[in-house]
Design brief:
Blueprint (H helix, E strand, L loop, with lengths): L3 H9 L8 E8 L3 H14 L6 H22 L6 E9 L2 E8 L7 H4 L16 H8 L2 E7 L3 E9 L3
Length: 157
């Protein structure tokens, strides 16, 4: 029998090996936690001495990724959003993962203005913002299994 911590690490294990510094956050998929996630990541990356612009860029990208997990991944239903932050040298990696509905067509979902939200309240610009504010964006998703968004940004050069 594995303990709870081992299961969590297996579920969320994303990066291995060369990590200099790492944080792992697990939170309920409720809208008010989006702000919490951005603040946690901002505090975590503060040890890298980012500029205000770099800090704002990462906070915006984290906000978009977490909001996508809550709104589209879990469709406002109960679930867990996993966030991992890794600092390796001057590079910050942020991974946001859910075990929600997943996506059949990642390419289509990443097109500007595309949204699966039928209420008309969403602009469909989440992935576009993540791409614009981060240096690297990778999305992996399987229908019925969830979505993983990995973003990287060089801090200070």
């Amino acid at each position: 029998m594995t303990d709870r911590r081992e299961r969590k690490e297996e579920d969320v294990k994303i990066e291995d090996g060369r990590n200099e510094d790492r944080i792992l956050l697990e939170m309920d998929s409720i809208s008010r936690n989006e702000e919490f996630a951005r603040v946690v990541m901002a505090v975590f990356m503060s040890r890298m001495n980012p500029t205000l612009e770099e800090l704002d860029d990462v906070k915006t990208a984290v906000s978009e990724a977490v909001t996508n997990a809550i709104i589209h991944g879990y469709r406002q239903e109960k679930g867990i959003v996993y966030i991992e932050g890794i600092i390796a040298g001057n590079e910050l990696t942020v991974v946001v993962k859910d075990r929600g509905v997943g996506m059949e067509n990642i390419k289509q979902a990443m097109e500007p203005m595309y949204t699966s939200d039928k209420s008309g309240e969403r602009s469909g610009m989440g992935f576009s913002f993540m791409e614009a504010f981060m240096d690297h964006l990778e999305v992996d998703s399987q229908p019925g299994e969830g979505t993983m968004v990995r973003m990287k940004k060089r801090i200070g050069g």
